[in-house]
Amino acid sequence: MKARTSQQAPEMRQAYVRAWRQYRIRRWCLTCFAMAAVGIALLCHGRTWETVAAVAWALSMLSYVWLLAWRCPRCSRPYFFAGFIHPFARRCMHCGLPKWHLPDTDQRPAQSQGEEPEKR
Ligand SMILES: [Zn+2]
């Protein structure tokens, strides 16, 4: 049983790393499109640039929805949505998983204090 969990730990850690990378990509898409929309609207003038800014703004709103739909790597439920939207949540709205958490870091404090690591 213990050997099985030690074999699964790297795979689980990789799944978390992939999930956090996906979250980072979604957040960057939102930031880039929103900043492009605001920058174009403020700095450029003319009907064509207004259209470009509107498209960038629409893409930023789609990115926002995409970001909010991101699922927690631990519980697979929407990280930022549980009855209400909390886009700046630092923990999963369902299971409390802290942002940027990796499974190995979960076990280090318990082992360093001489306690039994949590069995799963
Ligand atoms: Zn969760």
* Low-pLDDT residue spans: 107-120
Total of domains = 1
Bound molecules: zinc ion
- Residue share in helix: 55-70%
Helix count, DSSP H or I runs of 4 or more residues: 3
Q: Kindly state the number of beta strands.
A: 0
The coarse silhouette is elongated
User: Distance between termini?
Assistant: 10 Å
Task: Quote the average pLDDT.
Answer: 84
What kind of oligomer do you see? Answer: single chain
Which structural category fits the helices and strands? mainly alpha
Sheet with most strands: none
Following the backbone from N to C, one meets helices and strands in this order, namely HHH
Strand-residue proportion: under 5%
Task: Please name the defining characteristics of this protein.
120 residues, mainly alpha
Q: Could you characterize what this model shows?
A:
Helices cover 62% and strands 0% of the residues. It is an all-alpha fold and 120 residues long. It has one domain (16-112). α1 runs antiparallel to α2. Bound molecules: zinc ion. Zinc ion (ZN) binds at residues 72, 74-75, 77, 92, 94-95, 97.
